[in-house]
């Protein structure tokens, strides 16, 4: 058994609420038994409970959230649809539990602020499931950017589309873009100061199936995020165009997660004429070896480690609020037909 940073080897007791498409993965990770165990899990649907009970003998399953809250677990994982995150996470904090909440933290910035404040007051860990911040390929790219490999980043664009699960309340941007907003902020260490979004609902009124979000940063840097659950492709990718090189991260291509293109435009001065010349450079293509660790496993271990050492998680409540602030501004833009909206972050949220 490996030890936590604090030296403790005790598996943390975790309760899981929500055993749907994603919650079952969290149940699997936290049930590994080395760093954590899951004695109790809850879902409103009999089918989800039956599947979990069949797979994990000894796991107590219930449809009653109160049984999880009043059990002896130290931490609670909330993986229900986002509209219920606030109530469930708030109740878990009231019961003195450390809390992991799936993304988006909540659907309302003010409620998000209340959760962060409650966690702070109660001395509890609050972590949001911004899984891309735990992705080894993102770590690799972050270091490459920080080491100057790409040169100054000019612009980025992310695509997160599929033909997939439709959500009842949150639109495609609220459902998917938390991954890209948190990933880009983490990668660049920068926050946008202006956002704009356009989108359209085709399948149900008022819930956009496709949203194109643009974010503006200092020094002319921009990022674009395309989210849709009504698309023929299954794509989760990020392209970063830098002054020196360009990078593509494709999360759906395990053999070639990151590709570095030594492509760019070099600016040279002709000192005889004092004219600037732009020269196209199409050099080598490099596919670096990236750690194969599963992002979900890294993320869950991070939560357990923070429970032991009581340090703020990388994707803590403030990180959740940063993403909500961008989403709320983008939603206002969306409703106005795409008018850019300024975003300002209070000091405590400023450091991505
Ligand atoms: N990190 C990721 O890559 C990722 C991927 C998919 C979903 N998610 C997030 O995970 C969360 C869950 O998404 P999902 O796709 O699993 O949804 P889902 O609809 O498949 O599952 C949600 C489950 O929660 C249960 N539930 C709802 N309210 C409940 C309550 N009050 N008490 C007990 N059970 C309740 C439902 O019965 C259902 O089984 C969402 O926040 C979503 O955004 C994250």
Main sheet attributes: strand count, strand direction, barrel closure: 9 strands, mixed
Tally of helical segments:
9
- Kindly state the percentage of residues in helix: 25-40%
Please indicate the count of domains: 2
**N- to C-terminal distance:** 33 Å
- What is the radius of gyration? 22 Å
Net shape: globular
Residue-averaged pLDDT: 95
Short summary:
The chain is of the alpha/beta class.
3D structure, described in words:
This protein has 352 residues and is α/β, with parallel strands linked by helices. It has 2 domains: 121 residues, 3-Layer(aba) Sandwich (Rossmann fold); 187 residues, 2-Layer Sandwich (Dihydrodipicolinate Reductase, domain 2). Helix content is 31%, strand content 30%. The strands form 2 sheets. The chain has a 9-stranded mixed beta sheet with strand order 14-13-12-11-7-10-9-8-15. Strands 3-2-1-4-5-6 form a 6-stranded parallel beta sheet, with helices on both faces. Helix 4 packs parallel to helix 5. The protein is globular and about 80 Å long. The structure holds nicotinamide-adenine-dinucleotide. Nicotinamide-adenine-dinucleotide binds next to loops.
